[in-house]
Amino acid sequence: MLNMKILVTYYSVTGNTKKIAEAIYDAASEGNEIDLKDLNDISIKAFSNYDLVFLGSACHDSDLTHIVLQFLKTTPKTSDFKLAGFVTHASYTAEKGDYEKEMYDKWAGRCIKSFESFAQDNNVTFLGFFNCMGIPSPPIEKFIHDQIVTEEEQWVKYLEIIKKHPDENDIADAKQFAQEIIEKFG
Ligand SMILES: Cc1cc2nc3c(=O)[nH]c(=O)nc-3n(C[C@H](O)[C@H](O)[C@H](O)COP(=O)(O)O)c2cc1C
């Protein structure tokens, strides 16, 4: 379906989620009326002006950021838009193995649930979710080393992987996600 009004909006502190937002914007632009906005620059009422909203967040404290959660809480119940969510997180993604899945579930697993329960409570259709790893800031890196990936061999492996993300594959996957969401919408 062409000529949809689409909003791609994101809350990003260090730029990882913004990169994914830009990829989604690129992939969803063709044939549609589309805006790319920092969440700080819009009000929740603006969502009602769009057919489809891609909403992105960094993962903080194993959930969507407080700012995104607060933003969603203020959504008018009468809102009429379809939602797709995306998140970057410093945890591994779940699909790699048991250790990675455990880390993901504990440290980033709430993100999708928060989108889903928002959609359910507000009668908003939730079309899908994208997530990928994103390099953490130095204090968070230290926290992860001290508290989560404490074993040295695991840490070296983790650091080697996380420092590359989001990478080209994440960008390509985000673009594919955007196209799939648009197809679902149609
Ligand atoms: C205050 C803070 C808390 C964080 N908590 C988590 C967390 O609980 N789980 C996780 O996987 N990543 C966590 N991270 C890492 C970020 O989610 C990750 O680096 C993300 O890609 C940052 O996105 P941004 O560059 O768009 O801000 C945290 C980062 C910060 C700054």
Structural summary, described in words:
- The chain is an alpha/beta fold and 186 residues long.
- The protein has a single domain, classed as Rossmann fold (3-Layer(aba) Sandwich).
- The chain has seven helices and six strands.
- Strands 1, 2, 3, 4, 5 and 6 form a six-stranded mixed beta sheet that branches.
- A hairpin with a 2-residue loop joins β3 and β4.
- The longest helix has 18 residues, at 168-185.
- The chain starts with a strand and ends with a helix.
- The model has no long low-confidence stretch (mean pLDDT 94).
- The structure holds flavin mononucleotide.
- Flavin mononucleotide (FMN) binds at residues 12-18, 58-62, 88-91, 107-108, 134-137, 140.
Number of strands: 6
Q: Which structural class fits the helix and strand makeup?
A: alpha/beta
- CATH class, please? Alpha Beta
CATH superfamily: Flavodoxin domain
Poorly predicted runs: none
| Helicity, as a percent range | 40-55%
Number of domains: 1
The CATH topology label is Rossmann fold
Keywords:
186 residues, alpha/beta, Rossmann fold, 6-stranded mixed sheet, 6 strands, 22% strand, globular, binds flavin mononucleotide
Offer a concise description of the structure:
45% of the residues lie in helices and 22% in strands. The protein is of the alpha/beta class and 186 residues long.
Strand and helix layout:
Elements: E1 5-11, H1 16-28, E2 33-38, E3 52-60, E4 63-64, H2 66-73, E5 82-89, H3 98-107, H4 110-121, E6 125-133, H5 138-148, H6 152-162, H7 168-185
Parallel strand pairs: 1-2, 1-3, 3-5, 5-6
Antiparallel strand pairs: 3-4
The structure holds flavin mononucleotide.
